[in-house]
Amino acid sequence: MGHLCHLIDMEVLDTAALLSWPLDALTEGICALSQLDELKRLSPSRFMMIESQGPKFETPTQDFLNVAIQSSKNTGDYTGLSPVDIDVLALALEKDLPLVTDDYRLQNVCASIGHSWRGVIQEGVSEVRLHSNSCRYCGHINQTSGNCSECGN
Fold first, then answer.
1. Neighbouring-strand partners of residue 4
2. HSE value, Cβ hemisphere, 13 Å, CA-based, for 82
């Protein structure tokens, strides 16, 4: 199945779309404001072009950031997502628009809550997977990475 390099309708775009799609395909998209810093770091020349003629950039509300965080914790994907990923997911949920992403963790969270998504270039996930951060010492399942909240290891 080929992937369209343009918007089907209004959609929320992740950074992969900003980097790989033609500029004219991005103009009707919505992105998280935090993606601008990521884009500037990854491709300064693309950043300049997109900043001047690209999609609309917005900041998600705290309520939807909380929903995105909790949804990603429920699947165990939270620790593998960046703050920018959480912003993009929250914006898609807040606007109730499909998310265009090649990030399997974002796709997995969307699929788990019944939110529409499609890949930028990749096919994407075919089933929801639940991940856990279990402590290798005591087996306790932690919601965050780092030291175990149960045994401290």
1. none
2. 11
Looking at the DSSP bridge assignments, the partners of residue 133 are 142
Indicate the SS3 state at residue 94.
helix
DSSP classification of residue 17:
H
Instruction: Phi first, then psi: give them for residue 12, nearest 5 degrees.
Output: -95, 130
pLDDT score for 2 = 38
Each residue's pLDDT tens digit, 54-104: 899 999 999 999 999 999 999 999 999 999 999 999 999 999 999 999 999
pLDDT digits (tens, 9 = 90+) for 6-65: 455 789 999 999 999 999 889 889 999 999 999 999 999 999 999 888 899 999 999 999
CA distances for 36 relative to 16, 56, 89, angstroms:
12, 11, 16
Q: How many other CB atoms are there within 10 angstroms of residue 59's CB atom? A: 13
3-state class percentages of the chain: helix first, strand second, coil last, to nearest 5:
45, 10, 45
**CATH fold group of domain 12-118:** Rossmann fold (3.40.50)
Across-strand partners of 118? 100
Helix (H) or strand (E) holding 31: strand 30-32
